[in-house]
Predict the 3D structure of the following.
Amino acid sequence: MSRENDLPFKVIAEIFSSIENVTSRTQLTVAMVKLLKQTPPDVIDKVVYLIQGKLGPDWKDIPELGVGEKLLIQAISMAYRVSESQVEKLYKSLGDLGSVAERLSLQLHKNKKKVTGLLAFMGGETEALTVNKVFNTLLRVAMAQGEGSRDLKLRLVSSLLTDASPLEAKYIVRFIEGRLRLGIGDATVLDALAIAYGGSVHARTLIERAYNLRADLGYISKIVAQKGVDALKNIKPEVGVPVRPMLAERLNDPVEILRKVGGKALVEYKYDGERGQIHKKNDKVVIFSRRLENITHMFPDVVKMAKENIKAKEAIVEGEIVAINPDTYELRPFQELMRRKRKHDIQRAIKEVPVAVFLFDVIFYDGEDLTNKPLPERRKILEEIIEPTETWTLATSIVTDDPDELNKFFLKAIEDGAEGVMIKAIHEKSIYQAGARGWLWIKFKRDYKSEMIDTVDLVAVGGFYGRGKRGGKIGTLLMAAYDPKTDTFKTVCKVGSGFTDEDLDKMEELFKPYIISHKHPRVDSKIEADVWFEPVKVAEIIGAELTLSPLHTCCYNAVRSGTGISIRFPRFIRWRDDKRAEDATTEDELLEMYKRQLKKIEEEATQV
Ligand code: ATP
């Protein structure tokens, strides 16, 4: 590539340096405009990624750089011919490896200057770094995997630093450390692009829409720089590139909700799982998360469903991936799905935590961008292209303009294990607003802000060691209710908040007499604690609400198969030294409380 199509890295380093202490968004935008205007279109994508501290959009699955602090210190020491301990010493005093590299590079340059004549004579002057050189080298660092990669990474980074000026070295090191922290978000880049290439911020709407349809800021910048803002008018979603998801506002009053969406609405179950944006092209399927990460590898079963049951060559559909009971197809709580995501053995995870997909939208279908079509039209297409199965179906829904009917449907949704309902506008302007949170979709969930009806008294049966400041000390307790029928203690929750510093300081001392080497025989727990206690100490606990959880054994299978009752956001209130462990809240009491809570939600909902 010729030099006209590249940008000296020096330009970037100087601009980064000029905004180091700037917090005003306007000033940051001005600096970005200055940078983008100087950038040749061919490398503008790379410049945009560098500004964001990345080597590409997150969903592209570019490997991490894999250069830890130790390796970086080694590279700095190699590049500037000082010992690693000298680097570490400087690091301690300056607190930032970027500044260390800058300082050492400056020293080396000064020394070199003394012998400049000689170096020049020997051809020792290095060529100035460019964006391509820096970016491509960093990409090679990231791509270096497997045997010998550590050495290769070391050599690449150290030679990059050798070629860099002191200021350049500072920002290269910070980039590698992931500590660029320029405070420039997507919005600032979009503004800057609009000003630099569209003449004003008005061009921003067009640029933003394009970015929402194709979540790759580098790619969008390149089109703008090469072909002008108008070229974005024709942009469509593309299979394989995530579309930024449409989001919902929140309301709890059915009358107001229906008014907001224009009277009549499509009301769907709001499933409690993970959003999946499923892209299909011929035989290839990719799934993106709500945060646009590529999650395809976690859901080979969903990939299979999509391959077999989307009747289109090309399509982008959206749905919620939910854990289910494979025998009854009942919905299971969100935590269950998380259990699957933590597993490394995917084939086993598929068996242990089977899922279903509830589809609710289609964004793109056989070459056509559907985002500007009203929801009823999109929904119709979705119905046409989806071959439903037990685990691959449309979200359960009704169309209504009646608040009472909405309420009834809401209660049914909760009974069936959904989180609430989604109310969606179906008028002519009910388009798919990619990347926006608006009033075309409204979520109606149970209100978690309300406290639990009563506090409960639970027994501490195990503990977990804290991290960070509280490292090595017990900071969280595993709490259990009492079951007199079997004379056992069954776990309900882990509590780590509500303790004062004094409580935490005394914790070790308090539990010392009760620490045992195994789980106590009267304790029924699926969770492995770091340390086990005799069930003696009783504490009063409050929380946001009682909830279902597959992790806890209290009331296991009593409400729903495969789940127990737990407490959402539990907080410690005080020790109840006046209570023996057997005086703690019982399993049956908790079940009663859970039923009362359900009734209360129903009553509140029917009051409207
Ligand atoms: P948000 O996504 O709105 O920022 P959040 O991530 O906390 O907030 P919620 O507020 O719970 O999520 O609600 C939005 C999410 O609900 C969607 O992103 C989607 O994953 C999920 N969802 C479940 N069922 C539906 C449905 N029928 N239609 C749309 N979204 C649904």
